[in-house]
Amino acid sequence: MSPTVFRYNRYRFLFLSREERRMHVLVWSPDGETKIWLEPEIKL
Known about the structure:
The protein is mainly beta. It has strands at about 5-10, 10-15, 25-30, 30-35. It contains no helices and four strands. Strands 1-2-3-4 form a four-stranded antiparallel sheet, with no helix packed on it. The chain is globular, with a radius of gyration of 10 Å. The mean pLDDT is about 80.
C-alpha cells in the first residue's frame, strides 16, 4: 500500500518509493494516472 499524500475530489496523490529511483508523485483518478517527477526539476 502506498501512502496517500493528498486527496482532492476524485484525485489521489501518492508516493511509490520502489517504482523507480527518481523521486516522483503519482496522481491517480478513476479516469487514469500520471507521474510528476520532482527531481531534478518538476516535470509532467
